[in-house]
Amino acid sequence: MSYRLAVAATETPSPSGPAPSSGTGPRPLPGREPWLQWVLNIGVVVAGALTIRPMGLDGRGLAVLVLFVINSVALLARALPEAKVPPRVAVIWLTGGIIAAAALIGVSRSGSSYMFAFFLAGHIGYRLPTRTALTLAGLCSVLCGAVLYFRLGPGHDALPWALGLATGVPVLVGIINRSSQRAVQAVIAAAESAERAARAEAQAAVLTERSRIARDVHDVLAHSLAGINMQLELADALLDTGDLDKVREANDKAHSMVKESLKQAQWTVHALREDSLPLVESLAAMTESSGHREALTVTGTVRQVSARATQNLLRIAQESLTNAGRHAPGATVAVELAFAPASTTLRIRNGPATRAVTAGVGSGMGLIGMRERAALLGGTITAGPVTEGPEQGGWQVEAVIPDE
After folding, report:
1. DSSP characters for 317-385?
2. Tell me: the pLDDT tens digits for 21-55?
3. In 3-state terms, what secondary structure has residue 65?
């Protein structure tokens, strides 16, 4: 994008560092390089020192010298930054400059004294507001033109009075230059603002991705490790009783859970790497791998769901099936995927446990993670006990995700 090119030409931000501060002062703009201003100003002063006559320490020569110094100071002050010169001071300084320039044209006999008036008029157009600049430029033209028209100095024969009237014309160049510089500054400011917004958006995307990865890690590791730890603790407790059969059973169950965890981890890595997974096929494979064959029911017209919705629905299903296996071992599980015209609904319902439930402590983040996933997609999650039907006493999780 164009704003990136504009900013890239003036700054190279660190990938991990903060955005450069705008408080370091305005950057040089095209046509306003300080060294170029100094070269032009010093060139006018040097040309005046070499050509303006008479110049001495008494009589008219002293007057010419004093006016030359005043004009030189007024001209060289152009290099002062605008922020350091109050507007009222700038008006007084430039007004005095053009009066001194007109006086120098009248007092001097020959030379380039008129150059001071031309350059000061140009800077008036750049430094001051348009109305004030045009007023002072008109004053400059009137004063210089009058000096030459009424033959007020010894050098009136060397210069036509029309040249004096023309001394205010460069104000137009200054106004145009100021307008273009302000436009460039506005473009750069907009580019910097857009770049800061892009950085903030990128940072938000990174944080969102971190949260997603944290949820995926929880789905795979938290439940699995908690279950394995619970079986190992049970085996340790049974060692004291001498019941080796139950110790062996707990150990075998821990091994089985390790294998299942590895399978889920492989599936999760695959899902993280894929941009898009087939929702129905992936959900069928997941229910089958969890030990519930023919548990999936699909209703409505099957259609392709976005990659983001697919991944989050599969994570919700994985979390629900893991919870069903932990809290309701041996229970029947039904998974329903319903495609409505404007939404997709995933419903996982399990009946009451048919085997003893081993007490254990979960992370407490499962339902929170599912709600976060649904909220990211603008959907809702409802979870609670089943109060009627064949699965009464079981648990149901329902996710409704609107189409993007």
Report:
1. HHHHHHHHHHHSTT--EEEEEEE-SSEEEEEEEE---SSPPPP----S-HHHHHHHHHHHTT-EEEEEE
2. 444 444 555 445 678 888 989 999 999 999 999 99
3. helix
Euclidean distance between CA atoms 155 and 319, whole angstroms: 97
Could you please report the per-residue DSSP string of 198-254? HHHHHHHHHHHHHHHHHHHHIIIIIHHHHHHHHHHHHHHHHHTTT-HHHHHHHHHHH
CA distance 26 to 19: 16
The span from the CA of 48 to the CA of 21, in Å, is: 43
Contact predicate 301/347, CB 8 Å: no
Identity of the amino acid at 189 = A
> Which helix (H) or strand (E) element contains residue 172?
helix 170-217
Q: Name the strand (E) or helix (H) holding 398.
A: strand 395-402
d(CA 329, CA 351): 10
- How many angstroms separate the most distant Cα atoms in the chain? 128
Question: Which tens digits make up the pLDDT trace of 245-272?
Answer: 888 887 887 887 787 777 666 666 665 5
pLDDT at 273: 59
pLDDT band at 331 (very low <50, low <70, confident <90, very high): confident
CB 98 within 8 A of CB 139: yes
Contacts of 177 (CB under 8 A, 6+ apart): 31, 125, 126
Distance CA 241, CA 114 (A): 113
Buried b vs exposed e over 319-355: b needs ≥16 C-beta within 10 Å?
Answer: bbbbbbbbbbeebbbbbebebeeebbbbbbbbbbbee
CA distance 155 to 55: 14
351 closest CA partner among 399, 299, 292? 292
Q: Rounded to an integer, what distance in angstroms lies between the CA atom of residue 198 and that of residue 19?
A: 11
CA–CA separation, 250 vs 396, rounded Å?
A: 28
Percent of the chain whose pLDDT exceeds 90: 41
Residue 3's nearest CA partner among 143, 197, 162, 232 is 197
